Amino acid sequence: MKKMAYSLITFLVIGFSANAQDSLAQYIGKFNFPEGSIVSYVTVTAEAGKLSFSSDKGSGTLERVTADSFAIPEYQGTGKYTRNADNKVNGVIIDVMGYHIEGVKEMPAIALIDRRLYLKSERKQFAIR
Questions:
Q1: What is the 3-state secondary structure (H, E, C) of 63-93?
Q2: Residue 2 — pLDDT band, cuts 50, 70, 90?
Q3: What is the rounded CA–CA span in Å between residue 62 and residue 113?
Q4: Do residues 68 and 83 lie in contact, with contact meaning Cβ atoms separated by under 8 Å?
Q5: Is there a contact between 31 and 104 (Cβ–Cβ < 8 Å)?
Q6: What is the C-alpha to C-alpha distance for residues 39 and 22, in angstroms, rounded to an integer?
Q7: How many domains does the chain divide into?
Q8: Cα–chain-centroid distance for residue 13?
């Protein structure tokens, strides 16, 4: 009975961590800002269940506040993702150190989308085995 309970808890933890990583996947990508902005781009990545960013001016972490809003502790700022009519992330609004900038998500090439889907399906197959 203990083994069965332990196995169930293990599967639930793995499932929740996989869902958390998948939910962060919608936020990753490169966001470009208009010419003359304090940064020209921000690249958001997810690793170990946490979001981080890098830009031509620095890097840091994003800590979730609400569904699409994040704190940027290294710069005492906030970031909010915007969505299109299909409810897909299409941009970001950043308020940092008195600056308000709005960026647009760079859409990947079709080949990259196919590769990402292929890698994602491999990961799921690996997890099942």
A1: EECCCCEEEEHHHCEEEEEEECCCCCEEEEE
A2: low
A3: 24
A4: yes
A5: yes
A6: 28
A7: 1
A8: 20
Query: What's the pTM value of the predicted model, to 2 decimals?
Result: 0.67
Q: What CATH number should be reported for the domain holding residue 102?
A: 2.40.128.50
Six-digit token pair at 111?
A: 């080949």
Q: Which of 108, 96, 102 is nearest to 59 (CA)?
A: 96
Q: What is the pLDDT of residue 14?
A: 46
Of the candidates 83, 94, 90, the one whose C-alpha atom is nearest the C-alpha of residue 38 is 94
| pLDDT at 52 exceeding the cut of 60 | yes
Which residue carries 């150190």 as its tokens?
Answer: 97
R_g of the chain computed on alpha carbons: 18
Burial class (CB in 10 A: 0-12, 13-18, 19+), 119: exposed
The CA distance from 28 to 26, in Å, is 6
Average pLDDT over residues 31-45: 95
Q: Could you list the residue range(s) of the whole structural domain that residue 16 is in?
A: 2-128
| CB-based contacts of 70, cutoff 8 Å, min separation 6 | 51, 62, 63, 64, 78, 79, 80, 81
